Amino acid sequence: MRKRKPKAKVVSGNYMDKIPYISDGHEWRELDDGNVEVDMPHKGFYAKIAQKFFHKPAVSHIKLDEYGSVVWKSIDGERTIYDIVGKMNEAFPEEENDMLKRVITFISTLEMNKFVVLK
Q1: DSSP for 8-54, written as a single string
Q2: 14 close to 36: Cβ distance less than 8 angstroms
C-alpha cells in the first residue's frame, strides 16, 4: 500500500485576511532571550493515564525560535496574516522572499495543533 503525500495548502486572498487568535488554555511567556515559551496542557483520558502510569507531565513547555516568537507576539487578535507577514519582513528583511511561505506554514501548524483559531 502506497502512502499519499499530504496536499499542500492552497493560499487564497481570503486566507491572508484572516485574523489569528491565541486559543484559550495556552499560557505563554517571553523568556530572557526574547523568545516565547508556550504551555501545552495535556488533557483527556489517555493523557491522565500517561501522567499516572508513565510519569508524563501534565503540561509541556514549547520553546519557539526567533521566527516563531515574532509571529506569536504578533498575534494580538487585530492583525491579519498579511499584517504578520509584513511584520516578519521588517524583522527579517534578508529573508523576505521566503517569508510568506514560512509564516503560512507556521500559522497552519499552530491552527492544526489548536494553538490558534483563525477568524
Answers
A1: PPPPPHHHHT--EEEPTT--EEE-TTS-EEEEEE--SHHHHHHHHHH
A2: no
Q: Is the pTM of this model over 0.85?
A: no
Q: Identify which of 78, 61, 67, 48 has the alpha carbon closest to the alpha carbon of residue 105.
A: 67
Look up the CATH number of domain 13-118: 1.10.10
94 vs 2, higher pLDDT: 94
Neighbours of 115 (CB within 10 A): 20
For the chain, give every domain's residue range: 13-118
Q: Give the Cβ contact number of residue 41 at 10 Å.
A: 13
